[in-house]
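Form 12-C: Joint structure prediction
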Amino acid sequence: MSGFVMFISQIFNGLKIGSVYALVALGYTMVYGIIRLLNFAHGDFIMIGAYTLMLSIPALAAMGMPAWTAVIPATLVCALVGVLVERLAYKPVREKGNSMTALITAIAMSLLLENGSQAIFGADYKTVPTIVSIPTLTIGQLKIDGATIVSIVLGVVMMVAMQLYVKRTKQGKAMRAVSEDKEASLLMGINVNGTITLTFAIGSGLAAIAALMYCVSYPQVSPTMGMMLGLKAFVAAVLGGIGSIPGAMVGGLAIGLIESLTKAYIGTITGGVITSAFSDAIVFAILIIVLLVRPSGLMGEPETEKV
Amino acid sequence: MKKSALSMKQSYIVCAVGIAVLFGLLMAICESGAANTYIKGILMTCCIAVIMTTSLNLTVGVLGQLTLGCCGFEMIGAYSAALLSKLIVAKGIAMDPTARFLLTIFVGAVIACIFGILVGIPALRLHGDYLAIITLGFGEIIRVVLQNIPAAGGVGLDKGQAGQALIGIDRIANLYVVFWITVVTVVLLFMFARSRYGRAVKAIRDDEIAASASGLNVTYLKVLVFAISAFFAGLAGGIYAQYMGSLTPAYAGWLQSTNYVIMVVFGGMGSLTGSILSAIVLTILPEALRAFSDYRMLAYSVVLVVFMIFRPQGIFGSWEFSLPKLINRIVYRNGRGGAAKAAIAAEGAGTAGTTAAAKSAEPAGKEA
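Section 2 - Result
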C-alpha cells in the first residue's frame, strides 16, 4: 500500500471513530447547554446501550428481526436511564446545591452505573453479536470496510437531524430558550422541567446510537468501556465549543482524526521520541491548550461573567 | 472573652496533649503486639489518606475549586521519591534509612509542588467544571507519560523498562515517622487555613469577583493553594511509594483521585477535622467489609448521591472539631459563649462573602 493510500485510509479511520465521538459529544453539549452540568455519566450511557444491544440482538434474531433493530430497545433503555438519572439525582441536587455538588453527583452517578453493571454482568469483556454486514468498498487500492461507512453515514445523518430538530421544531426552540434563560422561559409558558427531561432523553438516546456505531467496529462490551470514550467525547465537545451542536460535530471529527493520525505518524515524525502510546496524552494536551487559548471552544460563544 | 475559658496558650497545650495521647495510643497498639503487619499497614494507609484528604480539602473545600488530578501529583512525588531513593542506594551513599526516607519524600514533594505551580498557573484561569476537567486531563497525561518513561518502569533508573510497574523500592517508611509527618502536615494546613491567607482564600471561594475587587491577588492565592496541595500530595506519594515497595502508573488516573474527592466530600468541604475523620473511616471501612468488596464502590456511589441531595456540605460541613472548645464546653459550661461565639462570628463573616468582612473578622479570629 502506498503512503498516500495509507494516509487516506487513516483519514477514514479517524472519521469513523470521530463520528462516534461527535455523537457522544452531542449528548454532552445538549445537556451542558441546558443545565450547565457536565454529565460525567454520559459515557456510561453508551455502556448501557451496548449491553442492551448485546442482550437484545439474540432476542430479536429469535423473532426473525434483523440485528440492527436492536438499536430501538437500546435507545429506549438509554433514554429511560437518562431520564431516571436526571429525575432521581440531578434534579434534587440542582435545586439545593451548587455547581460543585452537581458535578460530584454526576461523578457518583458514573461510578454507580459502572459498578452496577459490573455487579450484574461481571468485569470482563463480552462479545456483541454482528450487527451489520456491509461488504468492503474498494476504490483502487483503497479499502473502506462496512463499519466505517455505517459509522460515518449514521453520524452525519444524526447530526443533521439534531441540528434541524433544535433549530426548526417547537421543542427545539423551547430547548434553546431554556438554555438561554430559565426564568424567562418559565414566564413564556415553557415547561422547563419537561424540556430538561426531554433533552436528557434525547441526549441519552443518542448515546445508544453511538453505542451501535461503536459496537459495529469494536464488538465487545465491558462496564468501563464508556469511561475513556466519554472522556474523549467530552474533549471533543469542549474543543468544538460546549453548547454548540455543529461544534460537537466538528470537535468529534477533529479528535477522531487527530487520534488516528497521531497513532499512525507521531512515531515517525518525532523520530520515536513520542510513540503512539502517547495518543491519549496528546488528546488531553489538545484539550488543555484549547481551554487556555479559547475556553469557549472553536464554535462556542464566549461567556462573560456578571456580578 | 470570658476569663473562665481556656487561654490561647492553654488551648495549644491541650492540643499538644491530645496529639501525644494519640501517639501513645498508637505506640501501645504497635508495641503491645496487638497489631500485626496487616493492622500496621492499615494505620499507614490511614496516615497517607489523611495527608491526601486534608491537603485536597484545602483546594476543594477552602478554595472551592474541584480538582480531579490530585493522584497525578501524588504519583509525581511517589516516583520522584522512589527513584531518588534507588539512586542513593545505587551510588552507594551511606545514609540512615530514616534520613533517606525524609530526604526523598521531601524532594518528591518539592517536585510535585513545582508541577503544581506549572499546572496551576494556566489551569486556575478557569474555574468550576473546566478546572475539574483540566486537572483530570493533567492527571491522565501524567499517567500516560509515566507509562512511557523507561526509567520509571521495572527495576527503575537505567535498567528500567517502559510500561511496567516500578518495583524493588526500599520499604523504609516507618509508622511512627509517618505519624509525625501526618501531624505536622495537618498542623501546617490548619495554620494556613486560619491565617490571613486562609481567610483571603475563603473570601475567594465565597465570591471571587468581590474578593478581587477588594484588592486580593486572586491568581496568586489560587496558585499558592494549588501548590501547597500538590506539595502535600507529593509528600503522601513519597510515603506511599516507600511503604508499598512498588508503583503503577494507573494509580495516577482520575478514578483514584475521585476516591479522595469522595473522602473530602463525606468529611465536609472546608472542614479539615472532617477530612481526617472521613479519611480514617473510609480507609478502615473497606478493610472491615472485605467480604462485600464487589459492592463497595456501588454503595459508595449511592451514599454519595444521597449525601449530595440531603447534606451537600458533608458530615461536618465547615465545622471543625476542637479539643479546647470541647473542654471549655464541659469544664466551664460556656461552649456557646466566649470562644465559640467568636469562632461563629469569624465563620459567619467568612461566609458572608466580602473580603472586607473577612478582614474585619481577623481580631475576632485571634480572640478565638
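Section 3 - Comments
The mean pLDDT of chain A is 86. Residues 3-35 of chain A form the longest helix (33 residues).
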